[in-house]
Amino acid sequence: MNILVTGAAGFIGSHTAERLNEMGHKVVGTDNFSSYYNISLKRKNEKALNEKGIIVIPTDLRTDNLHEKFPKDLDYIFHFAAHPGISNTSTFEDYLSNNIVGTQRLLEFAESFKNKLFFVNIATSSIYGLEATFPESEPPKPASWYGVTKLAAEQLVLAKSRDKKLQTTSLRLFSVYGPRERPDKLYTRLIDCALNNKAFPLFEGSEKHLRSFTYVQDIVDGIVSVFGKEEVCNGEIFNLGTETENTTAQGIAIMEEILQKKIKIQAMPPRAGDQSRTKANIDKARKILGYNPQTTLKQGLLAQTDWFKNNFI
């Protein structure tokens, strides 16, 4: 199949593009190479994709002419591109334009295909709100600009299925970690602080937060499982993540065990909109997609530590 992956130079998008390529699909990536974090890290991911024959087209979904940028013969779009996370330096306009406007323009492009390509939206557990422990049928209660705009983007996508203009599905991901994780995320930052003798900024109360920390390759397993199940996935939402919960404090302890080093902590004020608990309810994904994540937190963090040492030391 001919596949477009948006946000392909990012963390999860790059892993998914590689997996799709390994499955024998013809994959083209796109990314806007935003300055949200160090662009050189995205360039590393781009280089890894290029070495496997996957090109990454620089594109701003909000403003560029997508018909001029992208291939004319697509069967699938995997839409990862978004303004991520909860950031004190990001404005509401950043989330609005990237997550809603960018998604709408991509959908307008997708509608132009006569073959009704399949559109996979990559969503987030932040849609549920401060606690994300629910099945997909639970009414969402997002508590951050990120969660609100990702919910809006998800509804824009699913509306195309309701209108029978596209076939679509939305996958809500839970606390993904692993090689290529963004530098502002928990485990990459912990490894960096430990190995470079820096203090790790810990938001007040967050050491008790519970998370479904899910290894990136387990997430990719779920993402690609939609192939061959397009009819049953059309118009549906699926949670993807592990059912195992760990506190942030437990995650820090595992990192200290792996690195054989105590990590210095810098106490920070609590962060507004931060989730207190995520626990992926994957009953639906297990039943329909055959989804069954297996990687333990320690196994995944060993792989992430090796990646960091090989790339940044």
Walk me through what this model shows.
With 313 residues, this protein is of the alpha/beta class. It has two domains: 2-175 and 214-243 and 280-289, Rossmann fold (3-Layer(aba) Sandwich); 186-209 and 245-279 and 297-312, UDP-galactose 4-epimerase, domain 1. The protein is built from eleven helices and 15 strands. Strands 3-2-1-4-5-7-12 form a seven-stranded parallel beta sheet, with helices on both faces. Strands 6-15 form a two-stranded parallel ribbon. A two-stranded parallel sheet has the order 8-11. Helix 1 (11-22) runs parallel beside helix 2 (39-50), helix 1 (11-22) crosses helix 7 (216-224) and helix 6 crosses helix 11. The radius of gyration is 19 Å and the shape is globular. The termini are far apart. The relative contact order is 0.14. The mean pLDDT is 95.
Can I get a quick summary?
By secondary structure, the protein is an alpha/beta fold. The chain has helices at residues 11-22, 39-50, 66-69, 92-111, 145-162, 186-195, 216-224, 230-233, 248-259, 283-289, 297-312, and strands at 2-6, 26-31, 55-58, 76-79, 118-124, 131-132, 167-173, 176-177, 200-203, 210-211, 214-215, 236-240, 246-247, 265-268, 277-278.
Write the layout of secondary structure elements.
Blueprint: E1 2-6, H1 11-22, E2 26-31, H2 39-50, E3 55-58, H3 66-69, E4 76-79, H4 92-111, E5 118-124, E6 131-132, H5 145-162, E7 167-173, E8 176-177, H6 186-195, E9 200-203, E10 210-211, E11 214-215, H7 216-224, H8 230-233, E12 236-240, E13 246-247, H9 248-259, E14 265-268, E15 277-278, H10 283-289, H11 297-312
